[in-house]
Design goal:
single chain, mainly alpha, FtsW, peptidoglycan synthesis, 15 helices, Probable peptidoglycan glycosyltransferase FtsW, glycosyltransferase, globular, 3 strands, 3% strand, transmembrane, three-stranded antiparallel β-sheet
Length: 384
């Protein structure tokens, strides 16, 4: 056990980290590893690979993911901001390169090869974009003469243009929802809300009109006609699981779900472990969001408040999209379940998000001491 009397970096981290947040993130990673045994062997066998090929790769991805999350949690808010700005600049460059040199998968260019690895820059863009926009919003709130909101709007437009060019409508919707939530927290005027809402609606109409694969997915969702094999099979897996599931390794329908280890891992969990288990999994994600928003509301620093709220919204909205698709409440869209689904880029990127959250929500005694000192002198307000 680490002593409170110690003053080393590890001791300071241990006593200042939000251990409830840390436990939730590690719990989700553990559940994801467990579910990889249920969802991935059938996919590996269809591809002619060893049954536990994806299980081994998932376990390998856990190591850099955990190191990334813990390492970033040591940063100060200023270091988080600087790291995010640098990361965003690098990811924007890579997202441009993806359009020309990226690997085409299912009609989209979202991956770029770096040596023996494949990287999806848009996954790492999300937490960096959120933190950078939080900084821009906070600067405008602190100094109204600084055009932080305008820069955030221009940055949003650039990111959305790159996502649509790939094309990746799911990430576009996710980014728009989180960015809009942060802008609303930053005091967006109602005129802006109406204008941006109209812009988002118009964007969906244009996507439906101009992108055949988008129109196809929406039409299949509304009419139930066409190739609905994947979502129908996922629904069947959930139904067969009932309340308590068929038991570990006893799932049958999961074996024919094409993306059972990634986009439809929730359906696999329902078939083998039951609806009650899935409800508990949803509750964990809800706790992450509620914990983050509660801490954000208590925070006096605008940057920290906007960043923490935006980062937990990213996890919450992404999990809602994934679960909604599995339950046929939303049109089919490839979106991983954070920290659960298989995928190196997705897992490491979500751990970047988690690391930023842990860094920004650490208890900082020196900050509290300053606030109490200012209060005693009649300058500030007492710290909570």
């Amino acid at each position: 056990m680490v002593s409170r009397a110690q003053r080393g970096a590890v001791a300071d981290w241990f006593w200042t980290i939000d251990r409830f947040f840390l436990a939730l993130f590690i719990l989700l990673m553990g559940i994801g590893f467990m579910l990889s045994f249920a969802g991935s062997p059938a996919v590996a066998e269809r591809l002619g690979l060893d049954s536990f090929h994806f299980v081994r790769r998932h376990s390998i991805f856990l190591i850099p993911s955990l190191i990334t999350m813990i390492g970033l949690s040591f940063l100060t808010p200023r270091q988080v901001r600087r790291t995010a700005v640098i990361m965003l600049a690098v990811m924007i460059v890579l997202m441009v390169l993806v359009l020309f040199f990226g690997q085409e998968v299912k009609g989209g260019r979202r991956w770029i090869g770096i040596g023996a690895l494949s990287l999806q820059p848009s996954e790492f863009m999300k937490p960096a974009f959120i933190v950078t926009c939080a900084w821009l919003f906070s600067e405008h709130a602190r100094q109204p003469e600084v055009p932080g909101n305008l820069f955030a709007i221009l940055l949003y437009g650039m990111i959305v243009a790159l996502l649509i060019a790939q094309p990746d409508l799911g990430q576009t919707i996710l980014t728009t929802a989180v960015w809009g939530g942060m802008f609303f927290m930053a005091g967006m005027p109602w005129l802006w809300i109406i204008l941006l809402g109209g812009f988002a609606t118009g964007g969906l109409v244009v996507a439906y009109t101009m992108l055949p694969h988008v129109a196809g997915r929406i039409d299949r969702f509304l009419t139930g006609e066409g190739d609905t094999f994947q979502v129908d099979t996922a629904r069947e897996a959930i139904i067969r699981g009932d309340w308590l599931g068929r038991g570990p390794g006893e799932g049958i329908v999961k074996r024919i779900i094409p993306d059972s280890h990634t986009d439809f891992i929730f359906s696999v969990a329902a078939e083998e472990f039951g609806i009650i288990f899935c409800m508990a999994l949803v509750l964990i994600f809800a706790l992450v969001v509620m914990r983050g928003l509660t801490l954000a509301m208590r925070e006096r620093d605008d940057f920290t408040r906007f960043a923490v709220a935006g980062l937990v919204l990213q996890i919450g909205v992404q999990s809602m999209i994934n679960v909604g698709v599995n339950l046929e409440l939303l049109p089919a869209k490839g979106m991983t379940l954070p920290l659960i689904s298989y995928g190196g880029s997705s897992m490491v990127a979500i751990c970047v998000t988690a690391g930023f959250i842990l860094a920004l929500t650490r208890h900082r005694p020196e900050k509290r001491a300053v606030e109490r000192s200012l209060f005693r002198s009649g300058i500030g307000v007492p710290a909570e």
